[in-house]
Amino acid sequence: MLSMDQIHRIRQLFYEQGCNISEIARKTGLDWKTVRKYVDKEDFNADNPLPTERNLCPILDPYKPIIDGWLREDKKAPRKQRHTAKRVYKRLSREAEGFSCSYRTVAAYVKEKKKELNLSQKEGFIPLIHSPGEAQADFGAADFYENGLHHSGKYFVMDYPYSNQGYLQLHYGENMECLLESMKAIFEHAGGVPTEIWFDNTSTIVTKILSGDDREVTDRFTRFQEHYGFKAVFCNPDSGNEKGGVESKVKYDRKNMLVPVPRFISLEQYNRHLLEECDRDADREHYRHEGKTIEELYESDRKAFLPLPKVPFDTASYELVSTDGWGKFKLNNGKHTYSASPGLAGGKVWLKKTAEHIYVLDEKQQLVARHRRLYGDEPAESMEWLPYLKYIAKKPRSLRNSGIYSMMPEPMQKYLDACKNSERGKVLRALSELTDRTGFDSAVQTVRQAIEYQAHDEDSLKNLYRRLYADVPQLPPLSPQKGVLSLAQMPSGLSAYDGLLEGRCCS
User: Fold this and answer.
1) Last residue of a domain, one of 97, 122, 147
2) Disulfide-capable partner of 342 in 33, 327, 408, 426 (CB 3.0 to 4.6 Å)?
3) What pTM did the predictor assign?
């Protein structure tokens, strides 16, 4: 626990002398997290004495195991995606049978339990007043699971400060496609366009900060702005408080829409769900307008909106890139590698880039491959095998010398080595068909089974695939039926069968 003199010294260095967090940490010998804590601290009231009761809030006893479980799970979640007392109270009201405790009781217990679990954190909101029809925009960070796969993603928030209504959209990352797709989806859901939108000086939009309020922005953002007709306003550098409404909404949405950490099958479907959830959340009293709900005030925003354009805006970006000798290309400063097709090696392909996908197009604008877009700063590769398998199936004898062989997984190499020359082309065509149906991983798994059963022909490969992936019910074994001869009773000579064919009975 630092003394008030130490705290005063930290804040003096930051607010009066303009030192940054790292400089203050070096000068004071304190950890940067401690420095940050006291720079951001807003409440310097003396702490009230802790309750003396050993059993805090006994009326909550039936629900404490549930609350404790949620809060313990929060220790595994990102710091900004943990339960608030309000979120705990809402979940108990919806999910716990017979729950009737007050919010104050829940808040008191959650506060003490968070201290016990070292989960306590204070965050503040900065209210701003704006005219109807205006909006503010920003991104926040949030984890989520899609099809069981973890993503450290971003979410875009559009806030309407007059009514305190807002919407969010979840993404794998933060770029121009994520920004434009989110805004377009929110405009269309809201049925109109804000007259004015406030932004940070993010490099996604702003290329150069000029004097005063002037900014140089990207061509694509200018096109989007002109298409929808809104006015873009940019905050002064390092002045996020100028759009405090959306700063608060980013925190609110994380704690109320993204806790617990979301798990879903389809990001596209989940984003539609988030828009609907934001509509439902507006049925609550506005924090500064007693007796009026957010939904009621939002009607004034909607009346002030600009109409949607008649022509839809294409939020995708297009780029012409060169492929290497393997028919691959790189994006994100060479960190991310994608496949095109061996038939397009050493040439150029067009890319259509959206927030979620990279579409590879040939010179006739025909789709060659579709990739899930890669995000992050770590090197990564996305390989779409179908064009490669189709290509090499036409020239199976050149497999070894094509360069494609060395890129294949080891089980695939081992399997193709064991195939006869006369069968290899058929097998490659079969593998391309399987990949087209359910993906390359399912084809590799089928190959593993084929190796185990030493099945190296086309028909056997397809049968193994059907056994693994087709929805074929397992039939029970036949039970013996009366009148059916056993193996021992079957006649040994062919003359008996001749008698059967001529209509004579055998004894």
Assistant:
1) 122
2) 327
3) 0.65
